[in-house]
Each structure stands twice: as structure tokens, then as C-alpha cells.
Design brief:
Blueprint lengths: L2 H32 L4 H24 L2 H27 L17 H30 L13 H9 L89 H11 L10 H8 L3 H20 L2
Helix pairs in contact: 1-2, 1-3, 2-3, 2-4, 3-4, 6-8, 7-8
Length: about 300
């Protein structure tokens, strides 16, 4: 509804309420005269009752929670009291001409006492309830309505665009690496302690599974495969750093070899076995093997 329609609706409501107040004002004025009010008091009496009803209605629109329920109870109570007094005014025609006895609103005494008590207590109640409602309205703190977020992106952009001093921590600037069309590759560094060989390296032959050698066969010399990895350039170990190892004579080697192969048959006397037992070189091991086998052959041929 537009603003003009709202204004027209409020104006119509005010007109209806004004006319209803004028009708009720006549009945309440006659009731006030019947309970002993003078002319001025009787004229103001309708404002005490119906005026508090209007005040309670406004307080209902403003207050919330328990205060709003209290304003609704006041509005209902005074509305019911005004309805009862207007009803009594309609039942007693003598009230219209002010010919009724003073303080007499009904023929039955209990009903008369109740009506007089109701009519005389409404002004006092208006003072109490009206003051309480006004105090509640003045002390009422309306709940703030949060402003709606029109656009979430704008809110996020506002946070991002805050100054550096407002941020909890300074954000480091991103490191931008310029793109290079043809990057130049630097040569790999040469490890310290390795010597680059200037001679071409021979390819490593494929190593297959070597067949098992029969015992007693002539051993073949094993050649170490050439490695493509450059070896560390280590200098000659000085004599002081070497561990002293006594050199054994041929007689000592032969004596140790005889002890190691004393319980072995001829078929199991091999150069590799001797080399492992007495820890000597392959050449010495072969020499010792041939000597031991020759001694056994000579011992068998001697009568």
C-alpha cells in the first residue's frame, strides 16, 4: 500500500474512534453524575476510561515481552469496564434524565454496590496503570535491527581493501617471478672429491647368471666390471696410517693350508677355499692348492 492509502486508512480509523468515543462519552458522563460527580468531573470522566484504553493500545504497539502482555491486560480490563457501564446506562432509562437516586445504579443492592465500586475505581486505576504504562514506554529499549547485507561480494571487498594498520597482521607482498621465454640451464655442479675422467667410459656388459663351477676345476680369473661412476680420487694412504700386518713366509702359508685341508678330500681342496681359510691372495692360494695336491699324489705313490 502506498503512502496516500495509508494516510487515508489512518484518517478513517481516527474518525471511527472519535465517533465511538462520542457515543461512549454520553453514557459514561451520566454514570459519573449518578455516582456523585459534579458537572466538570462528569465531563472529564469519559476521558479517564476511554483515554486510558487509547494509551494502552499505543503501549501495546511499542512494548514487547511481559510489558506488552501487561498493556494488553490493561486494555482488556478497561474495555470490559466501559462496556459494562454503557450496558447499565442502556438498562436504566432514569440515568438519561438524571432523575435516578444518587448512588443508585441498580435495584438489587449487591449489583448496585458492585457497579458503584467499578465506576469509582476506574479513575484511580487510570492514574496507576497510566503512569506505569508511560514509564514502561519511556524506559523501553528497542532491539536494534541488523542492517541487511546487500551484496556479500561488496562486504568481502571492503574487508580486503582495509588499510594495513587495520589488519591484524601485515600480509607479505607476493613474489612475482618474471616469465623467461628461453631459460638458460646452468651446468650441474661437480661434487668435491670427484675427478671427471676425460677418457670415454666403456659400456658395462650385461651380467648373466654364471654356471656353478665343479670342484677341482681350474679356476678362471674374474675381471671386475668397469663402472661408469667416477671413483673418488683418494691419495695413497701413508704408511703411518696403515695397520701393521706381519708378512707370512711361504712355509708358514703352506703349513696353515695343510692344517686347513687336512680333513678334506682331494676333490674339495680348491684355491678359493684355501684363500678364505687362511686369508691370502688368489695367486698364493692357487700355489698352495697345487703344492698340497702334489704332496698327496706323491704320498700315495710311495710304498
Amino acid at each position: 500500500m502506498n503512502s496516500n492509502g495509508r494516510k487515508l486508512l489512518v484518517a478513517a480509523l481516527v474518525a471511527v474512534v472519535g465517533m465511538a468515543f462520542r457515543v461512549s462519552w454520553n453514557a459514561l458522563r451520566d454514570i459519573a453524575n449518578a455516582i456523585g460527580a459534579d458537572h466538570t468531573a462528569a465531563t472529564l470522566y469519559p476521558f479517564v476510561v476511554d483515554g486510558l484504553m487509547a494509551l494502552a493500545l499505543v503501549a501495546t504497539l511499542v512494548l514487547t515481552g511481559d510489558d506488552r502482555r501487561f498493556a494488553l491486560r490493561v486494555l482488556g480490563t478497561y474495555t470490559g469496564a466501559s462496556l459494562v457501564l454503557n450496558y447499565v446506562h442502556g438498562l436504566v432509562p432514569a440515568l438519561h434524565g438524571a432523575t435516578v437516586d444518587w448512588g443508585r445504579l441498580a435495584d438489587w443492592d449487591p449489583a448496585n454496590w458492585a457497579l458503584v465500586l467499578l465506576a469509582t475505581s476506574l479513575p484511580v486505576g487510570s492514574i496507576y496503570f497510566g503512569s506505569d504504562l508511560v514509564a514502561k514506554v519511556l524506559h523501553h529499549q528497542p532491539t536494534p535491527i541488523p542492517a541487511p547485507i546487500v551484496n556479500a561480494e561488496e562486504s568481502t571487498e571492503t574487508v580486503i581493501k582495509r588499510s594495513t594498520a587495520d589488519l591484524p597482521e601485515s600480509t607479505p607482498a607476493p613474489i612475482i617471478t618474471p616469465a623467461v621465454a628461453n631459460p638458460v640451464r646452468m651446468p650441474d655442479p661437480v661434487p668435491v672429491g670427484f675427478v671427471k675422467s676425460t677418457l670415454p667410459l666403456k659400456p658395462v656388459p650385461a651380467l648373466g647368471s654364471a654356471p656353478a663351477k665343479p670342484i677341482g676345476s681350474t679356476p678362471q680369473r674374474t675381471v671386475a666390471a668397469a663402472s661408469t661412476r667416477p671413483r673418488a680420487a683418494t691419495g695413497r694412504v701413508p704408511n703411518v696410517a696403515r695397520s701393521p700386518q706381519p708378512r707370512r713366509t711361504e712355509a708358514e702359508l703352506l703349513d696353515e693350508a695343510r692344517k686347513a685341508t687336512a680333513n678334506l678330500p682331494d676333490a674339495k681342496v680348491t684355491a678359493e677355499g684355501i684363500r678364505r681359510e687362511i686369508h691370502t691372495s688368489p695367486a698364493n692360494a692357487r700355489m698352495l692348492r697345487d703344492t698340497i695336491l702334489a704332496e698327496r699324489v706323491a704320498a700315495v705313490g710311495t710304498p
